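Please, structure for the following, as tokens.
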Amino acid sequence: MTAIGFIGLGTMGGPMCARLAAAGHSVRAFDLSADALDAAVAAGADAAISAVDAATGADVLFTSLPAPADVEAVMAPGDDDGDGALAALASGSVWVDLTTSRPDLIRRLASEAPDGVHVVDSPVTGAVDGARNGSLALFAGGDRSTIKRVRPVLEHLGSVIECGALGTGCVVKLVTNQLWFVGAAALGEGLAVGVANGVQLGELWEAIKHSVADSFVARHDAPSIFAGHYDPSFSLALCVKDLGLLAELAESVGADLPMTTAARDAFERAAERYGLDAPELSVARRIEDDADLSLRLDGDWVPHWEA
């Protein structure tokens, strides 16, 4: 049994925390949302009264937060806010950040960690159903010996993919999101072109899945378009945030990346239309509304976060 601290019990963090508690680990969890914290306690975790409290005494501290600014605020707040959770970790402990974040931030915070505290960046992919079912992919960056230490704990959440030095987990996660966003934007466009030219939506989807156009996006995300809820488990705000982080990384390439630029434009247009809190696949809704066509399809579309 490992003593685990878990900070951030949102859409992804809540199910991950629950899996660690169900695996028999001692988990002290914290979130600003009382409802989220109550759900973690119901799943077997103990409630911490603060982020610092969650970190105190932890062998492994997990953070799963919306954005880099939240990670910094929790782990190393300003002088007026007192010490952050990073300072509460004891020598020999490991901080694993599951957040989709900036590689330079995780490296800087690691340099500020107390002596003997090790850091791994391990953002995840696989959506809410993956978090619930333990089938996520975890992109781990950091010292190989440290990753080896925490691997048995991480594997309760899914498959661990070692990416290299500290910060590379963030880079790999952003690249996978880069390709996901391009695919999600393109999916709505392809469905619209087919339907507008007389193809039945169900037949078109079957053709996509059995062709070179097949992808995780086509299989996993299309039902959220068909159902008309557009997947509220991931907001346009998070899409726009990640695309902004990608733009920062893209500066290192030194070449034009038109597909990534077009995807960012598509998601930002959807956010301007429907608001940042709107579901991620509103990027397809924008096409439906502008073209005056429907991509609804009858079916037993169980929301993936309930699967």
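The domain at 3-165 is CATH 3.40.50.720 (Rossmann fold). Strands lie at 3-7, 26-30, 46-47, 60-63, 94-97, 118-121, 124-125, 136-141, 158-164.
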